[in-house]
Fold:
Amino acid sequence: MNSESRQAETKKPYEAPRLTIISLRPEEAVLGHCKTTTGTDQCHTPCASFLCVNVGS
Amino acid sequence: MSGEVGQLRQAFDQSDGSLYLSRFEIGGVSVQLHGDCRADVSLVPSLEPFRVAPGKADVDIRVGWVSNLPPATGRTVFDSGTTWGLSESNGEFQFDFNAAVFGDKPFKRLLIDRNFCSGQLQMNRECLDDFPNPVEPLGYPFDELLIMHRLTQEKAIELHGCGIVRPDQTGNLFVGHSGAGKSTTTRLWTSLENVEVLSDDRIIVRRDPNCGLRMYGTPWHGEAMYASPASAPLTRIFVLEHGHGNVITRLSRSEAVAELFARSFVPFHHHAYVDSALIFLEEVVDAVPVYRYAFEPDERAVETILHFHD
Structure:
């Protein structure tokens, strides 16, 4: 068996490129939610009247 | 001279003449506040566990008060659509912080150099003098924004995830979007194992000065409220998603970088920051294995990982 046919045997079958779409979450990435309110902490920002939401992910 | 006063005096001698100093460290980044009164350099409660003694810092912030803050005149770089916006002028960045109660007037403004080393935080008397509650200069999201931007200058990144360290020092990082199960995972592990939780929502990963990668807890916790200043070697990363059974699948290099990037906190407003984040994430996935973890929220999800080998 010559080297060319050995190469052909070991060569991986062609696989077409696949496109995978990964979703970003811009609303999470911009740090828009207040994370200061906890069970023991006082909220020290003036935004409570309009934006204070639960902590968490 | 008492320890605290001594430390203050020493730091004062090294500083710009500010009377009060406080310093905190998150994810290996130290920030020192300089101010003329104690309240200006006070740390919000969530930052207290991250307080360190005054000294040399990566970022120095001078806190002061101004009678008013004129509207930003520089080029608008980014509008978060929520409480902060960023503009650029004369080679420095200007972060304006807003609240609906004050209308269009920013209640505070951070002016900082492009390397995020030195800045001034200006508190607006026009807004805050008559405000009924004291406003902490470092109130969220100031602290996280500052650290997130500073990390662009270092080999490090902030990820949306929970960091759990087993007694044998195996450090598992579970990343996930909101609702993916970070807090649930944290609760399951703490109920079944003697583990240390660095954070249940935000972890900073950086090069370990000795070898490999290290993950650090942050103050910005999730529903389970774990926020530790500790750190641990990073062993592996799981991308969390809800599924049937508990199935672990190794991700390819490109899939891993993309999935981590989608769960990272990176300033998207400059190409250079995005580029450096992607380059660092390549280093991360070359250094530690990354898996997709489709799990069901019960104790078997923990057992599956306990019996798992790379």
